[in-house]
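Researcher: Please predict.
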Amino acid sequence: MLAADARLAAADPALPGLRDVLAPLGLVRRLAPAWGVRSARVDYLRYKRGTSLLAGLVLTDDDGATSFAQALAVRAGAADKLAKVRRAGEADDVGRGAVVDDGLAVAVADATADRRLPGVRRVLRDADGVSPLVYRPGRRWVARVEGAAGPAELVRVYHPGAAAGVLTGHRALTGLPVPAVTAVRLRRGTVRSAWVPGTSLDRLAAAAQLWGQAGALAAAVHREARAEGLRRVDREGGLAASVTAVRSVAPACAEAAAAAAARVRAGLAGRGAVRVVHGDLSADQVVVRPDLTAGASAEQASPGQAGLTLIDLDRVALDDPLADLGSWYGALVATGAEAGDPAELLAPLLAGYTAAGGEVDERALRLHCAAAVLQRAVEPFRRHLPGWPDGVARLVAAAEELTR
C-alpha cells in the first residue's frame, strides 16, 4: 500500500474498508476467488470523507484478459447501501454479480452489476464484438461495438436520468464536426454514435498546426452552436466542490485552494460573456483524421470525415467561452505539462481561435485557467497515481499562482 493511502485510511476511521479498497487485489481475491484475478489496479476514485470510497478497478485474470469492476467502502452500519449493491448483483444475469462483506462494510461488483448503469447488461446481451473502453462507476461505461454488416459504433451507457442531457449536447452542436448519433434508448441510458477513426490530438507530437485548427473549431462551437435546452454552468458550485475535494484528500492544501477559488470568483464577477461551450475541452477530446496523423493511425477515414472531430459531448452547456480554453490548459497541466503563462502555453490554440473570430481577454483567461486547474487538483488522487499528495499540491500551487 502507498504510504499516502495508509495515512488517508488512518485519518478516516469511519470507513473501516477504505484501506482494502485502495489495495484491492487482496479484497477481490478474498471476496470473489472464483473470478480468478491475477492483478487489480485502481483506475478511478470517488471519495466522500467519512461516507464512502468508490473505486473503478481494472482486473486481469489468469489468462491475461482484462475487465472492469468496482469496489466500495462505506460507513460501518450502512446496511442499506450494501443491500442495494447486493440486489444489483443478484440481478446481474450477464456478468459476475457482486459480493458484499457486511462486517467490513465493503463490496466488489462487476461493471455489469452497477445498479446505476443497467444499460450495460442490455448492451452486452444484444451485441457481439463489444470491447469496453472506459468505466466510471455509477456514471459512465463506454465500449466499441463492431458492426455485423456495417461500420463500428461507440456505445455509451449513463444513468437513465442523465442520457437526455447528453443527447441535448449533441443536438446543440448539430452541423459541426461531431460524431453522428445513431441510436438512443433513454430508458436504458444508452447513446450510440458513429465510431470516429483517427488519433486523439494529445497523442500527436509537433502538432502546432493542428492546435490552431482546434482553436478554430472551438471558435466555431462558440459562434454556431445552439443554446436551446442547455443548462448554465454553476461556477460557484464547481469551485466550492473543488475546494471540498482538496480538503478531503490533502487538508494542508485546503487554505491555498480556497484562496485561489475566492480570487477566481472576484476576478470573474460581472463578466457576462455566455456561449455554448464543450465544457471539457482538451486535446484528448479532438480526434484527428487518419491521413493527418503522420502514420499514427492505421484506420481508414470515414466518408466525408472532417480533419478534426470533437468528441465526448457529455458536458456541453452555457458558460463563458474562455472556460473552454481554460479547460484545455487545465488538462495539459493536470497531465504533467509545466504550468506557465497561458498566452505562451496555449499560443497555437489561441492563434487559431482568434483568427476564427474568437475573442480573448488575457486576465479573464488566466482566471479560467486557474479554475480549470483547481477543478482538476485532485486528479492525481482520483487516478491513484504514485505520489498523489505531491501531485495535488503542485496543481493547487499552479492554480494559486495563476490568480496572482
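Model: Residues 208-224 form the longest helix (17 residues).
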